[in-house]
Each structure stands twice: as C-alpha cells, then as structure tokens.
Amino acid sequence: MTELELRACDMRIDIVRMIAEAGSGHPGGSLSCTDILTALYFGGVMDHNPEDPKWEGRDRFILAKGHAAPALYAVLAHAGYFPREELSTLRKLGTRLQGHPDCNLCPGVEVSTGSLGQGLSIAAGAAAGLKLAGKPQRVFCLLGDGECEEGQVWEAAMWAAHEGLDNLVAIVDRNHLQIDGDTADVCDPGDMVAKFAAFGWNASTVDGHDIDALVAVLTAAKTAADGKPHVLVANTIKGKGVSFMENQAGWHGKAPNAEQTEQAVAELEAAKKEA
C-alpha cells in the first residue's frame, strides 16, 4: 500500500470503531467515500489549514451526504483539526461530533449538512460568492448517488452551469446503494456522466478507490478554467474494506456489534499487513 492507502485504511478502522462505540451511525457510505476524502485532504488537492480552519485562503469542502460524517471526522482528526481520541465521542451527549456535521461545533466543517439534496446548492452559492469576490479558491462537494434523486440537486446543477462556475467541483459517491436498496430499483439515475454533461457540466468518471487516479482527476478539475463546473462520478463499493458490509444496503445506517467490529478491524489490519 502507498502512504495514502495506509492512511485511508487507518481511517476506515476509526470509522468502524467510532460507529460501534456510538451504537449508531452510517458505516456503508462512510467507508465508500474514505478514499475520495483521503485524496482531497492528503493528496495535495485541497488547500486547507488545520491550525486555522477559517483561513481565508482555504478551499471549501461540503459534505452533501451528511450522514457520512464519520468519514469526514476521521479525515479531520487525522489532519489535525482535533485530537483523534475525540472520535470515540461520536453521537454522545455534549460532543462536537454530531450524527451529521455541525459547523458551529466542529472545526473544519464548512457547512452543517444532513438534509439530503441541499449540499450542491450551498456549494454553488459558495463558488459564486468566491467568483464575485475575485478569489481563486475552489469549492468541492461530495454527493451520494441516492441523494441525486432529489430535485434540488438538478436545480443547482442547472444554475451552476448557467453561471459558469468552473471553481466548483462535485464528486458523486456512486456506490449504487441507498437505504432502500439498489439505486436502479428505487429511482434509476441512469448514466450520471451523460446526465450532468447534458446540464452543461464537464463530467467524467473515476475509480473511487484508486487514490492516485482520484488525486490526478481532482487536481485537473481544480486547475481547469473552462467556464464549466466539474463533476466526477466516482465508482465505489458501499462498505469498502469490510467483507460483510460490502455491497450490502443493510449496512447503510446500522452499527456493528462487538463481534462484527472485531472482525471488521481484523480485516482492515490484515489488509495493511498484506500490502
């Protein structure tokens, strides 16, 4: 494993452990997007400063699929926004680490999210604000593929293209599962690359678990100035890294018990040793 892959593996262990400790949470979609967040925060894609979370020169990241907060918390803790030991307080009374990200409590959280469908609108507004202010920073927004069934996503997509927001980069965590099952059965999104392209976006696909590829395409999207917003449809596996969670819709929002936690951590530790 590369250094970034090892870090992603460690963060997956933290995700499993914190959800188990909380007794609730969303492991499936958190594990599927861990490599994407690793590329953004540790692959040199995003400019950010853990010692000054509100640094004016920072790029903005918005987790539209707010239920994947454990993945964001793991990344922020590893980056130094708060102590890693604090991850064990997930969803506990008085914690900064709420079940969905709260920008008033947790350093490094740009926007409070959780009501699906709204994140891309917020990201588009932030990108427009940066453009109006003549600032060079970029806005990154991570959406779920089930979330893209929300109409507001497509209103935001239409407006972002109309405004030429080429400082906006959206990433779709395309794991093909949502709480009710396969996205193709619930409300088939079809060819998401073609759909975004039809809305005027520069759209492409990427292996959402190939961190090097993610860094390359995200960096290219960040530096492009072609008058179009960019979207990367990242093909992922829900529950990635834990055999009994992979591709199982039932693990969308369920905490593992003690035995399952032990097995999950053992599998992730073994993957590190085999690399």
From TrEMBL:
Its cofactor is thiamine diphosphate. GO terms for molecular function: magnesium ion binding. SUPFAM superfamilies: Thiamin diphosphate-binding fold (THDP-binding). Residues 11-264 form the Transketolase N-terminal domain. It comes from the Bacteria. Keywords: Thiamine pyrophosphate. PROSITE patterns: PROKAR_LIPOPROTEIN (PS51257). InterPro entries: THDP-binding (IPR029061), Transketolase_N (IPR005474). Pfam families: Transketolase_N. Belongs to the transketolase family. This is Transketolase.
